[in-house]
Write a structure and sequence with these properties.
about 375 residues, mainly alpha, 12 helices, 5 strands, about 65% helix, elongated
Length: about 375
């Protein structure tokens, strides 16, 4: 291994030799170099895929269809990440179009990768008839695994760092100093300044790659807890991811020195997008959570309600059965009473009244009186 960079931290006396090249070799006269940047990103991607496959199995999602999503989503994600970066750096790539395809030299934007990957995944899900919202929940945790690990690739390249800081974890290296020295004019144009420093007088900078990595890991833990204890509807985990990651990225992006900007303004593209995503996701999360509480339903493809929700659902169904039974009993009692009244009315019609009985007996009495008269005369 070669191409070491010595990295110093303010709170540590010694420096650390960080290699950027993992392997370098020749095959059939051609020289190949494998950088740690690519190795670390690939490792994060592998763990993300394994986690996604595990969730897909538990959620009863077809593994074959998920492989299609993985393939087409990955391809569209890489294309989206590269296009996003090149579009906002068009002042360079417009004059060097051949460099657009040199992705091994860096220049893959996370938001572009997410947008491209989701577009590819959406159409693949639609074609394969997969639940896209469940897929989003699955990818939320997978994204955080990949992002949390992948950010360390920036460390080996000594990129994605921030402005000067006096904090104990402030970082400095020759690569950092060279980048800062070369971009002083850009910083001045955007309204901030950064000192490059020297080996004797180091000007430490924020390791923003580390901030984002730690934020992604923390967000994963939060979403995992929601997944195990509080997940109630499809899309909930993804909206939580958008809220958490968008909030963290908006803050962290403000420290960075290598941000992409909107035109000639001082507006950082990733910061604007992060704020918009976080606010939109938070509103949707609140609305859909309130909607679920009014009408709870099982999650499609998941073979369980959470235990507490299952108990609530059983209790609700039992109450509904009791109310239905009570209504049926009341209706039955009403119909029985009605039938009894009808029977009594029929009996009353068939049985003569006291007046009718008296009226029927009176003629007999009148007939008997003449007989008595005849007897007296005799």
């Amino acid at each position: 291994m070669d191409d070491f960079t010595t990295v110093f931290f303010k709170g540590i006396d010694r420096g650390f030799n960080i290699p950027s090249v993992a392997a370098s070799f020749d095959i059939f006269g051609s020289h190949f170099t494998i950088k740690w940047y690519g190795v670390i990103i690939a490792f994060g991607f592998l763990l993300a895929v394994l986690w996604g496959g595990r969730c897909a199995y538990k959620w009863k999602m077809s593994i074959d269809k998920m492989l299609d999503v993985l393939i087409y989503g990955t391809l569209s994600g890489v294309i989206g990440a590269r296009l996003y970066y090149c579009i906002f750096e068009w002042s360079y790539y417009g004059q060097h179009p051949a460099d657009i395809f040199k992705i091994w030299e860096g220049g893959l934007a996370i938001y572009g990768g997410l947008i491209g990957g989701l577009i590819g995944a959406y159409f693949t899900c639609k074609f394969n008839k997969l639940n896209f919202l469940n897929l989003l929940d699955l990818t939320a945790m997978s994204f955080l695994i990949g992002q949390g690990i992948g950010r360390w690739g920036n460390f080996t390249n000594q990129e994605a760092f921030g402005t000067n800081t006096g904090l104990p974890w402030g970082m400095w290296s020759r690569k950092v100093a060279e980048y800062i020295s070369e971009n002083q004019a850009v910083f001045a144009e955007k309204g901030f300044s950064v000192k490059a420093g020297t080996i004797a007088e180091k000007a430490y900078v924020h390791p923003t790659f580390l901030y984002e990595s730690l934020w992604c890991i923390l967000s994963f833990v939060i979403i995992f807890i929601i997944y195990k204890k509080f997940r109630t509807f499809s899309g909930q985990l993804f909206l939580t991811y958008c809220t958490l990651y968008g909030t963290g990225r908006a803050v962290i992006e403000g420290f960075r020195t290598d941000s992409l900007y909107i035109g000639n303004t001082n507006l950082r593209i990733s910061q604007v997008i992060s704020i918009a995503i976080a606010l939109t996701a938070l509103v949707l999360l609140i609305v859909l959570t309130a909607k679920y509480k009014k009408d709870p339903k099982p999650i499609e493809g998941v073979d369980f309600f959470r235990e507490d929700e299952s108990a609530k659902e059983k209790s609700r169904k039992n109450k509904e059965k009791k109310i239905k039974a009570q209504k049926e009993n009341l209706f039955g009692d009403y119909m029985a009473a009605k039938a009894e009244q009808n029977r009594e009315a029929e009996l009353q019609k068939e049985e003569p009244s006291e007046q009718e009985k008296e009226a029927a007996e009176e003629p007999e009495a009148e007939t008997a009186e003449p007989e008595d008269a005849d007897t007296d005369q005799n």
